[in-house]
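It would be a great kindness if you could assist me with a short task in structural biology. I am sending you one protein, given as its amino acid sequence and as whole-number tokens for its backbone shapes. I would ask you to consider whether the tokens describe a fold that such a sequence might reasonably adopt. The full record is reproduced below for your convenience.
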Amino acid sequence: MPDYGIAGKRAVVTGGSRGIGAAIVARLLAAGATVLTTARTASPVPAGASFVEADVRTPAGAQIVASAAQEILGGVDLLVHNAGGARPHPSGLAIPDDEWQDALSVNLLAAVRLDALLAPGMADRRSGAIVHISTAAVRPPFPPFLHYVAAKTALEAYSRGLAAELAPSGVRVNTVSPGRTATPGGLATREQWASLSPSAADFPEVPLGREGEPDDIADAVLFLLSDQASWLTGSGLAVDGGEYPR
């Protein structure tokens, strides 16, 4: 593996027990980072990573992660907010209030809270990198996932603003927006969507001819966290095989 300048750095990855999150954890470990990851329930994680059970949708869960990062890692150099998701509905107008609240909590506010707890330490050291995982689905209209898309759209706007605020301290903030990716969660979501309407399963063809793999997303995250992206902040990288041109 190339030298990304990540060896010896301390990383926190939320939602790192499976799928894209687990691939990000594995890539960081292979690059020489010390990694702490989280999930809502006790879960196996890639060998070599530390784990803390925490529900980052809540302020208390974010505090648990921040405290564990200090106790286990002694501080944080790299932060990846990967936790996210929502379930589809037949209509955007049919999404209940509690699911709107949950979508905003896990996809937006969890990142906001963890950044507030962990980014000041990076700023004090005048070094650090944050990556927020968004979605390529912010571009086309997806009424069944209106709550999810709205939360991720807000996450991208928030990321650009935070990047501008932290830039003078040397801390970089970027987003990665995955397209269709072969994960258990992604498959379950597509099955849920298809059950709402036969036409819901009619996805466009991916121009590059295949569905993405978790490692495709993890490679993009690793690049944005690395020294190779040292002059890159406030940017959004769509990793979607060209499915949703920007």
Observations:
- Residues 97-125 form the longest helix (29 residues).
